[in-house]
């Protein structure tokens, strides 16, 4: 088992295309997960007992939905969402279609991370803001998000790394990207060169994302 470098050079166009498709998928999915998951994570926190938007029903419903989606293995979620994906984007194959399932999987994951980051904030800071007459929106914007920004950045990093792994899995059902390349060339054709190359690409991508995420989290952490 080894790498045929001549064969690898021949596959560079396919590898480049797969890499671009992977970046495309995870960028869309990350954007959707942050835009949707951030407010859900905030709601999970502020509707809890003792906080300014305390609402047991809302908290229970949100908890149930988030836990339900997170409990479904991604490959099953991917297949289960095929009708919805077809309705939404008009196809069930390709990186755009895969982005739908990736987004649905990432939203509750990121929401939980946001909730956890907010719970690390000292309650005294929130109580002081309430005593000063700050509105709920001001507390969320100027206290919660500001105090939890380092944890949220770390959460974005973890979500992005999870999306890289999920995007590779999406290749098993024609989602495109690195996973699709590994399945079509590496698995079906027993091509060790492409299998090793795709694994190395994914490892390097994850390492770069982790290092960059850790650096940004440290920069914004003023504690």
Structural account:
This protein is mainly alpha-helical. It has one domain: MetI-like (MetI-like fold), CATH 1.10.3720. It contains eleven helices and no strands. Helix 3 crosses helix 6 and helix 10 packs antiparallel against helix 11. The protein starts with a helix and ends with a helix.
Q: Which key features would you list for this structure?
A:
single chain, 223 residues, mainly alpha, MetI-like fold, 81% helix
Provide the fold topology.
Blueprint: H1 5-10, H2 12-46, H3 56-71, H4 74-80, H5 82-89, H6 95-119, H7 123-131, H8 136-147, H9 149-170, H10 177-187, H11 192-220
The count of strands amounts to: 0
Can you summarize the main beta sheet? none
How would you sum up the global shape? elongated
What is the fold-level CATH name, i.e. the topology?
MetI-like fold
- Give the averaged pLDDT, no decimals: 87
- Helix- and strand-based class? mainly alpha
Estimate percent helicity.
over 70%
Radius of gyration: 20 Å
In CATH, the homologous superfamily goes by the name: MetI-like
CATH class: Mainly Alpha
End-to-end span in angstroms? 50 Å
Short description:
By secondary structure, the chain is an all-alpha fold.
């Amino acid at each position: 088992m080894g790498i045929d470098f001549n064969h690898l050079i021949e596959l560079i166009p396919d590898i480049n295309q797969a890499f671009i498709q992977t970046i495309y998928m995870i960028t869309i999915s990350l954007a959707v997960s942050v835009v949707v998951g951030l407010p859900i994570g905030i709601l999970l926190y502020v509707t809890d007992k003792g906080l300014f938007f305390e609402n047991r029903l809302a908290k229970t419903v949100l908890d149930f939905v988030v836990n339900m989606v997170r409990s479904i293995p991604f490959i099953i979620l991917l297949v289960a969402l095929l009708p919805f994906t077809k309705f939404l984007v008009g196809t069930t194959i390709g990186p755009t279609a895969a982005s739908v399932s990736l987004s649905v999987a990432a939203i509750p994951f990121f929401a939980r991370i946001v909730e956890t980051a907010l719970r690390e904030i000292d309650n005294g800071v929130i109580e002081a803001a309430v005593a000063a007459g700050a509105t709920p929106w001001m507390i969320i914007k100027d206290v919660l998000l500001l105090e939890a920004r380092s944890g949220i950045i770390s959460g974005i990093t973890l979500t992005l790394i999870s999306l890289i792994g999920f995007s590779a899995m999406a290749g098993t059902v024609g989602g495109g990207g690195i996973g699709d390349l590994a399945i079509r060339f590496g698995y079906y054709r027993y091509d060790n060169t492409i299998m090793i190359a795709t694994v190395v690409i994914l490892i390097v991508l994850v390492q770069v994302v982790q290092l960059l995420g850790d650096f940004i989290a440290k920069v914004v952490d003023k504690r």
